[in-house]
Amino acid sequence: MKIPSPLSNDSLTPSGVDDKDRGGRHYTGTLVRSLRTSVPVFPFLVYITLGLLVPTLVIINLAFRSDSGKLTLSNIHTILRGGAYLTGFENSVKLALAVSIIPAILGTLLAYAIAQSRFEFLKRLVATASGVLANFGGVNLAFMFVASFGANSLVTIWLSRIGLNPWEHGFDLYKLWGVAFVYCYFQVPLMVLVITPALNGLRPAWREAAENLGASRWQYWRHVGVPVLMPSVLGSTFLLFGSGLSAYATAEALTGGTVAITPIQIGAYLQGNVISGEEHIGYALGFGMIVLMLVSIIGYVLLRSRSSKWLQ
Amino acid sequence: MASVVTDNIVDFELPMVPLNLAKRRRIRWGRGLILWLAAAYFIIPIYAALKFSLQNINGSFSLSPIAAIPSQPGLAAAFFLSMRLAFVTLAIVLFLMVPTMIYVHMKMPRFRRFMEVVTILPIVIPPIVLILGVLEAAPLWLKASPYLLALVYVVLAMPFVYRSLDSGLGALDVKTLVEAARSLGAGWISTIWRVLVPNLRSALLSATVLTLALVLGEFTMASLDLWETLPVWIVDFDQTNAHISTAVAMLSLLGTWALLTLIVSIDRSHSRRRRRNDV
After folding, report:
1. Chain B neighbours among A 133-162 (CB < 8 Å)?
2. Domain housing B134
């Protein structure tokens, strides 16, 4: 991804014709000045570089190395040749789409219901619960669902008493869609967490103004609510997509690593379950996920600018 | 805890304002349904796990798994490691982000877009990939220390901290506050500490809560970095005694929730009292 330079972002030059009349000396002056302006953000930039950029570049570098350390494309070839690795990417994308779009809708509805509540304590409970649950996962989450939605567990027994055993209607907790069902347990709270500030930004005054001007509920949402919320909802949905794509521990624990999604394949590589001579495949898979994320970031930016046009 | 939530939802249904009664009741039905379904989805799995951990083989219930928790080998060490990591992470992330974001809001508003994109990356880059790269790139002395995890957790916490602070700062007139403080002779440090931080209280608090929740629940990275934090201990111990390990997991989930709610509640009552004194 092309990251815009912080310097060009904060040029102190007054825009307009004046610039052209100035000599080159002034440009260097501007550069020095904008450099000086951006000094206080350097710690942040350094931290991001060391904590995010360097590890990512290391992975990309290793994805193109053979076992002996020579540059090679063979790792990438192995992945693109088809078979399990491509299926893994396909399943990961399907899963991530499902656990971003559905929890985005449910989470927005839930957050709205909470935001409208008059009960401060309920709001507080839900806010902290979302923070905790959004970071919950792994073996314990998997176990909780096995204990409640497993083939012979609590909820399954309750539901089969009224003749609605979900396992007899195509539900399988240990397959891809079962994993998606479990992922909602942290995806919905994540959505509540990130969308609540935007919902609080909907000022009651706007609604009152719309009502005073004779707008119906539908008109209010069509012309005020949705256009104001849309960018945040899209952004949050994208965030959920990333989170759903990258989640690992829960699916691993729930299915014992049998669901073919890319994070599990990377995890298998880390635990040493690889055919010898293919150690760098793990890095190549990591590189694949980075590429996938970059593509979806671009898609998200396009979608966002398109949606702002629709809404105008 | 379940009863508190349901009580509130029941209260919720009582119309307090008789104005526009029919319309309001219709809205609340939908709202109540959403809240009930959500409560069921989120509470039943916790209930099922608790039931499992407290049930003996012969079907009777006892609290002995909970009573046995404190004496389990390794648990105390794992707990304190998690706590240390949580506070170190919190200190670093706030120290790094608060001054940066105040400055950006004042002087470099266009830098916000860049920060917004960059701070999404830690969520969308798979942790399993990130930790792979960190372990390859980190120098040996750092890899030998558990605080490498805290340094990486800072990156993971950035999305949440950025969003909390950004909305908090957006609601303030930072420039006026700072100019007022500066023209009254305050230095930068006391401007930030005595003017901006108190105004950012709730934003800082939500950043704190989210960071603590993240560090206390993180598993993937800690396990790959081979440090036994609380979540890693729970998983490792699962093979020894699943009942006790599940009990610990549920207690840590509910305990973290209660702790964070307590922190938020203390702050609310504190700020309410202060407001009353001001008037």
Report:
1. 133-141, 143-145, 147-149, 153-155
2. 74-278
Cβ atoms of residues B216 and B230 within 8 Å: yes
Q: Residues B129, B199: one domain?
A: yes
Q: At which residue do the structure tokens 């109540």 appear?
A: B32
Q: What is the pLDDT of residues A29-69, one digit of tens each?
A: 777 877 788 888 899 999 999 988 998 898 888 888 887 77
Instruction: Please tell me what DSSP assigns to residue A3.
Output: P
The reply to whether residue B218 touches residue A135, judged by beta carbons under 8 angstroms, is yes
A121:B8 CB<8 A: yes
CB < 8 Å to A57, chain B = 133
- Let me know if residue B68 belongs to a domain: no
Judge residue A215's burial from the number of C-beta atoms within 10 Å of its C-beta, 0-12 exposed, 13-18 middle, 19 or more buried: middle
The count of C-alpha atoms lying within 13 angstroms of the C-alpha of B247, restricted to the half-sphere facing its C-beta, is: 20
Give the pLDDT confidence score for residue B28 in this predicted structure: 65
Interchain proximity A110–B34, CB inside 8 Å = yes
ipTM of the complex: 0.77
* Residues 6 or more apart whose Cβ sits within 8 Å of residue A136: A185, A186, B217, B253
Residue A77 lies inside a defined structural domain of this protein = no
Decide: B2 and B9 in contact? Cβ < 8 Å: no
Q: Touching check for B132 and chain A: CB below 8 Å?
A: yes
Examine residue B244 and state whether it is found in any structural domain, yes or no: yes
Contact call for residues A146 and A173 (beta carbons, < 8 A): yes
Q: Which residues contact A199 (CB under 8 A, 6 or more apart)?
A: A108, A111, A112, A115, A229
Judge if B101 and B22 occupy the same domain: no
**Pairs of residues, one from chain A and one from chain B, whose beta carbons lie less than 8 Å apart:** 255
Work out how many domains chain A is built from and give that number.
2
Report the distance separating Cα A274 and Cα A96, nearest Å. Answer: 25
Cα first-last separation, chain A: 28
Q: Is the Cβ of B11 closer than 8 Å to some Cβ of chain A?
A: yes
Cβ within 8 Å, pair B133-A54: yes
Comparing alpha-carbon positions, the chain A residue that sits nearest to B267 is: A124
In this predicted model, what pLDDT tens digit does every residue of B121-162 receive, in sequence order? Answer: 887 788 888 888 888 888 888 888 889 999 999 999 998 899
DSSP secondary structure of A49-95: IIIIIHHHHHHHHHHTB-TTS-B-SHHHHHHHT-THHHHHHHHHHHH
| CA separation for the pair A47, B247 (Å, rounded) | 38
The model's pTM is: 0.79
